[in-house]
Amino acid sequence: MKIETKSRLMMTLLAIALLAAGTGVRAQETLRLTLQEAQQYALEHNQSMKNANLDVKKAELARWQTFSTMLPQVNASFDYQNMCGYEMNMSGFKIPFDPSGTFSLTAAVAVTGAQIVGTMLQDIAMDMTDISRMQTEQTTRANVKNVYVSILVMEETVDLLDSSLANLERLSATAQASVDVGAAEQVDADKLQVQVATMRNSITSTKRSLQMLYNSLLLQLGAEVDKQLELITPLDDIMNVGNALQLMAHPFNIENNYNYQLLEQNEKLARRNVTMAWMDRSPTLSVFYQYSKKKYFGDEGMNMTPPNMVGASLSLPIFSSGTHTAKIKSAKIDLQETQNSKQQAIDGLMVQYNQLRYDLASALESYDIQSKNLDVTKRVFDNLTEKYKYGRASSLEVTNASTDIISAQSNYIQAVMSVVSAQIQLENLLNEQ
C-alpha cells in the first residue's frame, strides 16, 4: 500500500512538473521589439487597421457595383402555359391549345449621365477611404509610440526608486541599530521607516501602472494577451532633442496633411454633386436584344412569337416644375458651404502648426530643466544618505530628500510625456514619421 501511495505521489509531482514546464514555455513567448518593429507589428495586427483595410476593399466593390450598372445585363426566363384542354371553335374548326413552354434570353444596356457621374463619385469615395486608412495608420503609429515611451519611462522610474529604496532601507536599519544602543532617538528611526514604506508604496504603484501600460501596448499591437514584451529601443534614442529641433524647423506643406486631403476630396465631391444635379436633365439611352424559343408539348400550334427582337429607346426629360432647377441651386449652395468650411479648416491648421511648434519648444525646455533637477535631486539624496551615516545629517533632511526624489521623478515623467505628445502631434500634422 505504501508503494502504491508513493507511486501516485510521484505521478502527481511529475504531472505538476510537466504543467509548470508547459507554462514556462508559454511564458517564454517573448516579443523583442524596437519602436519601429512595434509600429510595424501593429500595422499588421491591430484590429482598427484591419477594419480600415477592409473599408478600402468595400469602397472598391462599391465602385465596381456602380460601374457595372453601365454594362450589359443578361437575364434568362422560362414560361410554361397549359390551357387545360381548351379548344377554340372557329366556323366548325377546332383549334386546340396544347401546353407550351417559352425560353427567353434578354440582354439590355441602359446608360445615363447620372450613372457616369456616379462612377466618378465612387472614385472620390474610394480616395477618401484610402486617406482615412492612412490616417488610421498614422494614429496607430502614434499610439504605439506614446505607450512604448511611457513604458520606458516607467521602467526607468522603477530602477531609480529601487535604488533609492535600497539606500533608505540601509539607513533605516542603521538608525534602528543606533536606537537599540541608545545612540539615537526612536522618532528618528520611525521617520525613516515611514519613508521606507512610502517609497515602497510608490514603487508598487509604479509597477501596477507599468503592467497596465504593457497590457495597453499589447492591445495596440493586436498581440495575444499572454505574450511577453521586451522593448529594446533605448529612451535616449527616442528622446532625441536634435530630431525635435529639426521637426520644429520643418516647413508646413499643407498638402501632405491628411485632414487637408480629405477637405480637398470633400470639395471634389461637392462639385460632382452639382454635376450630378445637372445630369437629371440628361437623356437616357437603352438598347436591348431578346431571343425567344417556344415549344409545344403536343401538336404544333400556331407560333406567333418572333425568335429575335432588337430595340432601342431614348428618353429626355422636358418639364419637371422646377424640381431640377431647385436641386441644382441646392447643390451649388452645398459647394459654397464646403469651400467656406475648407478655408476655415486651412486657417485652423496653420494656427495649429504654430501652436504645436510653440508647445514642443516649451516641452523641450521643461524636459531639460526636469532632467537636470532629477539628476541634482538624486545627487543630493546620495550625499545626505552618506552624511547621515556619520551623523552629519538629520533624519528629517533624509526624509525630505527622498520625498524630493519622488516629486522630481514625477515631474520628469510629465516632462518626457509632454515632449513625446507634442512631437507626435506635430509629426501627424506635418505627416512626418
Instruction: Summarize model confidence as the mean pLDDT.
Output: 84
Structural class: alpha+beta
Order of the strands making up the biggest sheet: 2-5-7-8
Beta-strand percent range: 5-15%
Helix residue percentage: 55-70%
Largest sheet: 4 strands, antiparallel
Please tell me what the overall shape is: elongated
* Unreliable residue stretches: 20-28
Radius of gyration: 39 Å
Q: Quick one: CATH class?
A: Mainly Alpha
CATH topology: Outer membrane efflux proteins (OEP)
Total helix count? 10
Keywords:
single chain, 433 residues, alpha+beta, Outer membrane efflux proteins (OEP), 4-stranded antiparallel beta sheet, 70% helix, elongated
Provide a descriptive summary of the structure in words.
This protein is α+β, with helices and mostly antiparallel strands and 433 residues long. It has a single domain (30-89, 96-430), classed as Outer membrane efflux proteins (OEP) (Up-down Bundle), CATH 1.20.1600. Helix content is 70%, strand content 14%. It is built from 10 helices and 8 strands. The strands form 3 sheets. Strands 2-5-7-8 form a 4-stranded antiparallel β-sheet. Strands 1-6 form a two-stranded parallel sheet. It has a two-stranded antiparallel ribbon with strand order 3-4. A hairpin with a 2-residue loop joins β3 and β4. α2 packs across α4 (113-180) and α9 packs antiparallel against α10 (395-430). The longest helix is centred in the middle third of the chain and has 68 residues, at 113-180. The two termini are 72 Å apart.
